[in-house]
Amino acid sequence: MATADALPAPGRRISARVRILLWLLLVMAVALAAVATTTRSILLRDVDQRTTELLAQEAGEFANFVERGQDPRTGAPFTEPRRLLKVFLERQYADPYEELLGLVHDAKPPSVVRQKRDIPVRLPLYRDDRALAAIARSERHTGTLDRDEGEVRWAKVAIRPGGAGPEGTFVVAFHADRETARAGEVFRILLAISGVALLMTCGIGWVVAGRILAPVRLVRTTAAQLTEQDLTRRIPVRGRDDISALAETFNAMLDRLERAFGAQRQFVDDAGHELRTPITIVRGHLELMNTGPDGAAEREETVRLVTDELDRMSRIVEDLLLLAKAERPDFVAPAPVQLAELTADVFVKARTLGERRWELAEVAEGEALLDAQRITQAMVQLAQNAVQHTAVGQRIRIGSRRAPGLVELYVSDTGPGVRPEDAELIFERFRRGTARRGARGPGAATDTHGGGAGLGLSIVKAIAEGHRGRVELRPGDWHAPAAPAPTTGPATAPRPSPAAPGDGAGATFALLLEDTT
């Protein structure tokens, strides 16, 4: 049996509580990081989409104005790019980070036409000649400028006047740094919230894991405290979850261990108690045996006595081994058995046990799920018990009957009976009743091999319990009516037989077994 000293030191391994917490934190960290990263990607994509739509809208409005717009002074279409750009820009209301301006290519660098307002960025586009030149030279209609002062998304529309005036370009630009910075700020806030959530998860997970694993630690502690001398500790079962099922399974295992160790101790105690007497008798006779020439008769008697004691010791050991096997799950091997055939076999075997008036009282019909060998062993033991407590010529009845959910096999005799105070005592190991077991009727000694060790009825009880049944003692010589009891309805109650001359109070031992057919 493992003890606390045999367990590995706790510092040599990571506890289940810590492993659960680490896995929980890892999963939470991955999930929160995925949420934060996905949110940032969505925000950046939204900024990009809104910027693209804004640039397209402004470029479309300007192209439409070029096509259909008229100079308010003349009422005719615009012929000069500078005038066109100035009128259009005066009518537009741009976003704070949106910059609308026009380039007139009448000189190098081109002259800039813009709205009179402040742009809340470090370097507005209208003041960045290098950026304007790059936009003017680009063959694309939209693009992105990566500047040290910040990213600029732009779109342009070329102006080609019908006359001989200079060409112009309408430029709409959006400074996306602030929007991108907001997405980054949201990302950092989410990371901070995720960190707080991880800390809270760490604390809550530590407490919850401790509560969930408390029964497991109790199982380990209980197992460490178990010894062969103390198997009585049990784990309290709370709830109906997997942990409570584990506790119930562990308690059931402890029950089996306790029964196994109890059976082992009982076997050792019983063997030591019961074998001590015959060993003492054998030793005493051998020590006192006359080895001289004139001691032949004494030696013969000593050998007979020693042989008889050795035979009794052999029977005791066999009975003890049988009782020890009764705790094993394979003690009985039920199989379909014909009750009539089983009862008849038992009756035939029992008749050889002694010169009695044997009667087959009744025979049940049908099939039952029983271990025929064990049932035969129990019934023969009951018959042997009846022979030991009756005289030559007294009646012993054997029979079987069925009742709803039960199969009953019984042996009744007309011996001296059993006192009420001995009814339970006689089924214990090495115990004999004061008025039945060990108190034989006249003539009983002629049919038996001497008193038993007090294990016979214990074996019968073990066989009955192995069939999920019991053995029952009834006062008097009971037998069933002559007509067979119906197999489907309630069994007719047995009645005592009329007493014959020389009959005693009598007793009936019945095996009441569960009928699983």
Which stretches of 5+ consecutive residues score pLDDT under 50? 1-10, 434-451, 480-496
- Strand arrangement across the biggest beta sheet: 2-1-5-4-3
Order of helices and strands: HHEEHEEEHHHEHEEHEEHEEEE
- Helices, by number, come to 9
Give the proportion of residues in helices: 40-55%
Could you give a short account of the major beta sheet? 5 strands, antiparallel
- Which geometry do the CA atoms define? rod-shaped
- Percentage of residues in DSSP E strands: 15-25%
* Class based on secondary structure composition and strand pairing: alpha+beta
Oligomer: single chain
Protein described:
The protein has about 525 residues and is α+β, with helices and mostly antiparallel strands. The chain is built from nine helices and 14 strands. The chain has helices spanning about 15-70, 80-90, 130-135, 175-225, 240-290, 295-325, 340-350, 370-390, 455-465, and strands at about 100-105, 110-115, 140-145, 150-160, 170-175, 335-340, 355-360, 365-370, 395-405, 405-415, 470-475, 480, 495, 505-515. It is rod-shaped.
Any descriptors?
about 525 residues; alpha+beta; five-stranded antiparallel β-sheet; five-stranded mixed β-sheet; 9 helices; about 45% helix; rod-shaped; disordered N terminus
